[in-house]
Amino acid sequence: MPELPEVETTLRGVAPHIVDQFIDQLRVHNGSLRWPVTRGISELAKGQRVVAITRRAKYLLVELERGTMMIHLGMSGSLRLVDRAAPRRKHDHIEMLMTNGVCLRYHDPRRFGAWLWSDSGFPQLDHLGPEPLTDEFTGKRLFELSRKRKMAIKPFIMDNRTVVGVGNIYASEALFRGGIRPDRAAGRVSLKRYEQLTVHIKEVLTSAITQGGTTLRDFVNGNGEPGYFQQTLMVYGRGGQPCVTCAKPLKDIRLGQRSSVFCPACQR
DNA sequence: CTTTCAGCCTGACGGC
DNA sequence: TGCCGTCAGGCTGAAA
């Protein structure tokens, strides 16, 4: 599932082919996504130049001369650059054809994603916390925000108001590296441990982006499998298997309706 | 205010 | 073989 590293990888792969190009056609084959695709978006986008593509949290923002398109990949979405003559696959819901011949296809089996247009901002972006890979994201911030909070630390760091872009995979991995149990109350973690945790979060995200980038050369050919899936995951998806550190079996619990794997011996 | 939880959706997988 | 139930999960908004 796309987490922040995959969204960032997608941005870097797509931007050089799209920015400064003109939209020839925006075809919506199935506009029934997380929110209905903006009515009339094809007419709104047609002929416009793409001024820039940026990312905020897991949202991609395609800035046009007038208005912005906001794309989210949801749980199962992907954006691929393909030859416009390539046959459309099942679940290819939207395609953006550029006048330079490039074709960007939005593919999303579960349709949890989004593709919206607005010229007055998006409310989804209004209450987001800092980007994890900036200096705004500090252990001090986590410590202060968490005081008197009884919520478990894992859902706390996955809350977009705390910090954006930390999904289930990287929350699990960072907590393992930090030696913190995912079900520990957020308010009962010291400043020192929060400072260490922010370093681990930045490291796992950065390393995943680096590895995601290794598949970028294949992007245009449609081999969209992101490289970071190959990275060694120490706890995520490994419930019952031995801990890489102490070999005791990893425990799998549910926190906030999400599976959470951890080592009861190494994480406290 | 904080916290929990249903719902959105399809594909993969296990049991029978 | 195929049918059925369960699980996966980001995000929102309503309920507690």
From TrEMBL:
Transmembrane segments: none
Reactions catalysed according to its record: Hydrolysis of DNA containing ring-opened 7-methylguanine residues, releasing 2,6-diamino-4-hydroxy-5-(N-methyl)formamidopyrimidine; 2'-deoxyribonucleotide-(2'-deoxyribose 5'-phosphate)-2'-deoxyribonucleotide-DNA = a 3'-end 2'-deoxyribonucleotide-(2,3-dehydro-2,3-deoxyribose 5'-phosphate)-DNA + a 5'-end 5'-phospho-2'-deoxyribonucleoside-DNA + H(+)
FPG-type domain ranges (all copies): 234-268
Domain Formamidopyrimidine-DNA glycosylase catalytic: 2-113
UniProt-annotated binding residues for DNA: 91, 110, 149
Active site positions: 2-3, 58, 258
Cofactor binding note of this UniProt entry: Binds 1 zinc ion per subunit.
Record's keyword terms, sorted: DNA damage, DNA repair, DNA-binding, Glycosidase, Hydrolase, Lyase, Metal-binding, Multifunctional enzyme, Zinc, Zinc-finger
InterPro entries cross-referenced by the UniProt entry: DNA_glyclase_Znf_dom_DNA_BS, FPG_cat, FPG_Glyclase, FPG_N, H2TH_FPG, Ribosomal_uS13-like_H2TH, Znf_DNA_glyclase/AP_lyase, Znf_FPG/IleRS
Pfam families, per the entry: Fapy_DNA_glyco, H2TH, zf-FPG_IleRS
Documented EC number(s): 3.2.2.23, 4.2.99.18
Necessary cofactors: Zn(2+)
Entry function: Involved in base excision repair of DNA damaged by oxidation or by mutagenic agents. Acts as DNA glycosylase that recognizes and removes damaged bases. Has a preference for oxidized purines, such as 7,8-dihydro-8-oxoguanine (8-oxoG). Has AP (apurinic/apyrimidinic) lyase activity and introduces nicks in the DNA strand. Cleaves the DNA backbone by beta-delta elimination to generate a single-strand break at the site of the removed base with both 3'- and 5'-phosphates.
Assigned protein family: Belongs to the FPG family.
Name listed for the protein in its UniProt record: Formamidopyrimidine-DNA glycosylase
Organism: SAR92 clade bacterium H455
Native organism taxonomy: Bacteria, Pseudomonadati, Pseudomonadota, Gammaproteobacteria, Cellvibrionales
